[in-house]
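During the reporting period, we have paired protein sequences with backbone structure tokens. One record among many follows, to show the layout:
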Amino acid sequence: MRPIKTGASYQAEVWAKPADLASALGNTGVDVISSPATIGYLETACHGVIDKYFEGGEVSVGVGFNFRHLAAAHLDAPLQVSAELIAQDEKSFTFQVEARQGDRVIMTGQHERAIVNLGRFLKKTSE
């Protein structure tokens, strides 16, 4: 992994899909964007902070999650997702994350990702 400075950040606008609704995951009638989908979008934002610093064969995987889902989000407007690198060590990166829809904070928290060698990682998953 090439060096990256704490404070590096990434922002994106994403449009959720019907498959992202809580009702699509079995929570009948709850037609709002699910927690798992929102977390996935936040993980992608974290990955966006660091992916350009990977070296041959490196990828990142989520290893720590601490989120608060504060408000419902709907399909009729995009989510703004952001991630800022707030701490790091040799193989671990911690991010402050936030998902918003308009002026409302939908989800906030921290996410930790680890850098792994993809080949070794996939080999371990098949053992």
